[in-house]
Design a protein that fits this description.
The structure holds 3 protein chains of 3 kinds. By secondary structure, chain A is mainly alpha-helical. Chain A is built from 11 helices and 4 strands. The relative contact order of chain C is 0.15. The chains are: A mainly alpha, B alpha/beta, C mainly alpha.
């Protein structure tokens, strides 16, 4: 294999890792504040991508063709809508089931995700076909000696990294982040400290969902194609990444995301017929990793109360 | 006569915390032992280690002439140790009878063939178990014995506690562990429950009991001997009246709660 | 008793009219009538009286159901499409009783029901094409292979709980379908064709002639499905009214308490998981022979979720909830073409509503009555 294709694999893997990490951070946030798993996460990602696509189509129709402006407005639209949907899911589906068995939350969000997926499939014009996603970033090749790299890949990687750093800053350094961490630590104490519990939970849901939307839009910009079921794979692998990193652990989620991307990329290269079996391989890795380290490589604190 | 239970330098650590620290304890058959100490002194941890939920970090447990230190909870239950829990762990959707039968697991035939194909024999086994459950329940509380088929959720705290004790007793254990049986009940209810337990003990030969309790009236009334724990260590041992006078014991309780309360 | 018999007759008559109807407006009216009658019956206490009667005569209700079903099949004997729907509903009942055993009883989540169903179907297709094994044996083997495949998954499931186990089965469900699509030996996305089935020298694809009457060949497959459904019903029923059913409950409700009383949590989870997957595999096998053709698209995650919807709609752990849920989820969209395209969306939303408003489902699980039911 020549160095050019190695570089290509590296960029592909990094991009995939970035998307998984963004999704995994969302799972980790939800689990942190509420100890719940929101299985609609992947489909919220898809919704973000489709919202951005609709915004792009709408802007083009309105004659606004400037790529950067278009991109900015797409991001705003995608993030705003998914953030809203995330908060609504938290308010009307997750919080009401707080005292019900944990499985019910999982089921209700799983079913809601299915509803989102199906709604896009049947209501979006020709929703069951893959949709071309506009190419808005410059795709000039940058020459690095003998190697060439597309500019948009680098920009997307930078965008993803920036978002992760910003989220980390938000959680770690702001008042809002402090409230989120307080709720994650202990709901009752947080309430006594005067933190508006419901508000913080909903903000966290909106935040996590917005990250998913970003991952969806990055996905669209990178592959220039989206489809209604894109959230399934990204959601499941993103969740697995969050688990491997120890649910509730911010860094763990990011490491988990890149770990899965690395395994998948290596698998695609190293295994015969790897490319057609790449999804099969990815899910087999999910199952194998869960069998080997069921509660993550970085353990989630779990004390059995007796 | 040899002891039923014999613990030697039993230790259990959680990370940096030593919840149980070199405990030596010997228990003759038929004794009622009170296990007391401030909150977090290692009483419930001792039960959890004894029943195999946590493996001991070091030390040995010998029960009925057999080393059970490395046994699973299943094996320990089969060897004859049964317990109640501090927070009730009954299945509220299930009936009294079903809850009791969960406690009776080792005496029931769980094989697939028996349960699916030998329905006549199964019916006989169910019938016999039902009669037995009713009799045991009757020694506790006669009205409950006629309500075996009602779901647990409809019963009061004291009735639930009674069922929980019966669930532990129905398998005829040699050692019964009671984890704060009075929690959440009034004095009157506690007294009634203790009467029931003493009565049941008279009917089951050689039943040995360890009881964890904060209610010192209960301890004084029903125990033969007490062991006081603090920070996972045994700080005193003897009749309740003796240990209550012990300076170390009073110090351990000082500022936590008065030992003469209740 | 008469009440039960009347109810069975009424349901059979209603089903016959509904399944035979073609006019969309008539179908819509019939569906509204059906739900309206059920709601009215519930309001005036008729349903609870039916439930009491059912409990008073535990053996009668299943017999009546079988009788009503046979009557229904005879009435619709020439209507291929209606019969196919009945057969499919029966087979989904078998699979969902199996899944309910895992999920509703032992508390082992399985979001890959369609994958185990599909395992049965593909095993049947491959064995029927490449071996000379008798077909009845193939059906059994299909169930066994599904159970065996499940035992590969059981290790990670046992080592985890709740949402982790859910993730594993979801990953397996997606893996299964993706694998079938890329594997050319199993027909790829186009799937596989199955030969006609022969049971004890009788080709099930031949139309049946009884005297002057010609019956649809589907009648033979439905008979097979019915036999399977009766088997599954008896199995699940007997498990419920036995110590094993109680062990499942103990494991689902409180693993720690169960362990303390010597109940081997892993053993009962494995038992429930294997029996459930065995039933799903059997059902998938017969479904494949009945359709004569299978493809990866029949066994997607959405199909697994449809099975979960049937269970949740009917009521977790409930017996009669399964046929009711299956009838609503499978037959409604087939008859009412307006909703056909939207069925996944519709049922997903319906389950969301059920979980919020009536988590015990339409037919809540009845309390086990140990002493009168065993014999």
């Amino acid at each position: 294999m020549d160095s050019a294709s190695i570089l290509q694999h590296l960029v592909n893997g990094a991009m995939l890792g970035m998307m998984y990490a963004l999704v995994a951070v969302g799972f980790t946030l939800f689990f942190g504040v509420l100890d719940v798993i929101k299985f609609s996460h992947g489909d919220v990602l898809m919704l973000g991508a489709f919202t951005a696509l609709s915004a792009a189509l709408g802007l083009s129709a309105a004659g606004i063709e400037q790529p950067l402006l278009q991109l900015a407005l797409m991001l705003v639209a995608g993030i705003a809508l998914t953030g809203l949907v995330g908060a609504l899911v938290g308010r009307y589906l997750v919080l009401p089931l707080k005292s019900a068995p944990a499985l019910n939350t999982l089921l209700i969000t799983l079913m809601f995700g299915t509803a989102l997926r199906e709604a896009v499939r049947v209501f979006y014009p020709q929703g069951s076909n893959p949709k071309p996603f506009p190419r808005l970033l410059p795709d000039d090749a940058l020459q690095l000696g003998a190697l060439s790299l597309r500019a948009d890949s680098l920009l997307l990687l930078a965008l993803g990294a920036l978002v992760i750093i910003a989220t980390h800053w938000l959680i770690g350094r702001t008042k809002l982040g402090l409230a989120i961490r307080a709720v994650a630590q202990d709901e009752e104490t947080a309430k006594i400290m005067g933190i508006n519990y419901t508000k913080i939970v909903l903000i966290t849901f909106a935040l996590g969902s917005a990250l998913a939307a970003l991952a969806g839009i990055i996905n669209g910009l990178y592959y220039n194609e989206i489809n209604f079921s894109m959230g399934l794979n990204l959601g499941v692998i993103g969740f697995a990444a969050a688990i491997v990193g120890g649910l509730g652990n911010f860094y763990g989620a990011i490491i988990g995301g890149f770990l899965f991307a690395a395994l998948q990329t290596i698998g695609a290269v190293a295994i015969p017929f790897g490319s057609s079996y790449k999804d099969v391989f990815a899910f087999a890795v999910v199952i194998a990793l869960m069998a080997w380290k069921p509660t993550g490589l970085i353990a989630e604190q779990e004390a059995q109360r007796v | 006569m040899n002891a039923l239970l014999h613990c030697r330098v039993l230790t259990r650590r959680f990370g940096g915390v030593t919840a149980l620290d070199g405990l030596d304890l010997s228990l003759p058959r038929g004794e009622i032992l009170g296990l007391i100490g401030p909150n977090g002194s290692g009483k419930t941890t001792f039960f959890n280690v004894l029943t195999g939920i946590y493996a001991p970090s070091s030390g040995h447990i010998e029960f009925d002439g057999r080393d059970i230190s490395a046994c699973t909870p299943q094996q320990i239950y089969r060897a004859g140790i049964a317990r109640t829990f501090q927070r009730s762990r009954l299945n509220l959707e299930l009936s009294i009878f079903e809850n009791l039968m969960i406690g009776n697991h080792k005496r029931l035939n769980s094989s697939l063939w028996f349960n699916l194909m030998q329905r006549g024999a199964l019916a006989a086994e169910v019938g016999a178990a039902y009669t037995e459950a009713r009799e045991l329940m009757r020694t506790f509380d006669a009205p409950l014995a006629d309500r075996l088929d009602e779901p647990m959720a409809g019963f009061t705290m004291i009735d639930r506690r009674r069922v929980e004790v019966c669930r532990a007793l129905i398998s005829r254990p040699k050692l019964l562990l009671l984890d704060e049986p009075s929690a959440g009940m009034t004095h009157e209810e506690t007294r009634a429950l203790m009467d029931d337990i003493l009565q049941a003990r008279e009917r089951i030969a050689d039943l040995t009991i360890i009881i964890v309790e904060h209610e010192m009236g209960v301890i004084e009334r029903i125990t033969d001997r007490c062991v006081v724990l603090n920070f996972g260590q045994k700080i005193a041992e003897g009749k309740y009246r003796e240990v209550a006078q012990d300076a170390k014991v009073q110090e351990a309780y000082l500022g936590v709660e008065s030992i003469h309360e209740g | 008793m008469t009440l039960l018999a009347l109810a069975a007759a009424a349901i059979a008559a209603y089903a016959a009219v509904l399944l035979h109807a073609e006019d969309q407006r008539l179908i819509g009216a019939l569906i509204v009538l059906g739900f309206g009658t059920a709601a009215a019956a519930a309001k005036f206490g008729l349903l609870s009286r039916l439930g009491q009667a059912g409990r008073a005569h535990p053996r009668l209700a299943p017999l009546l159901a079988v009788a009503a079903l046979i009557a229904l099949i005879l009435v619709l004997r020439e209507d291929h499409f209606a019969l196919l729907m009945i057969g499919t509903t029966l087979l989904y009942c078998v699979a969902c009783w199996g899944l309910n055993l895992q999920f509703g009883r032992a508390g082992v989540v399985n979001f890959a029901g369609a994958a185990f169903f599909g395992t049965g179907a593909y095993t049947t297709a491959v064995l029927a094409a490449h071996t000379a094994l008798p077909h009845w044996l193939i059906v059994l083997l299909a169930g066994a292979v599904a159970a065996l495949l499940g035992s590969l998954l059981i290790l990670p499931i046992l080592r985890t709980r709740g949402h982790y186990a859910a993730l594993i089965t979801i990953a397996f469900g997606i893996l299964f379908k993706t694998f079938l699509e890329v594997n050319d030996a199993l027909g790829g996305p186009q799937g596989l064709k199955l030969p006609g089935f022969t049971l004890f020298g009788w080709n099930l694809n031949d139309n049946i002639t009884v005297g002057e009457q010609e019956l649809s060949f589907y009648v033979a497959y439905i008979a097979l499905a019915l036999v399977l459904a009766i088997f599954a019903f008896l199995l699940v029923r007997r498990l419920e009214h036995s110590w094993i059913g109680l062990n499942f409950d103990a494991v689902r409700m409180d693993e720690l308490a169960a362990t303390t009383f010597g109940i081997n949590v892993a053993r009962w989870k494995i038992t429930a998981f294997s029996i459930g997957n065995f039933l799903a595999g059997l059902a998938g096998s017969v479904q494949a022979t009945m359709l004569g053709f299978i493809a990866p698209n029949n066994f997607t995650l959405s199909d697994s979720l449809i099975m979960i919807s049937i269970i949740l709609l009917g009521g977790l752990g409930s017996f009669w909830g399964v046929p009711l849920g299956a009838a609503i989820v499978l037959i409604l969209p087939e008859k009412l073409q307006v909703i056909q395209e939207y069925r996944f969306l519709l049922f997903a939303l319906l389950v969301v509503a059920v979980l919020l408003l009536r988590p015990q489902g339409l037919v809540p699980r009845a309390q086990r009555s140990f002493t009168d039911r065993i014999r």
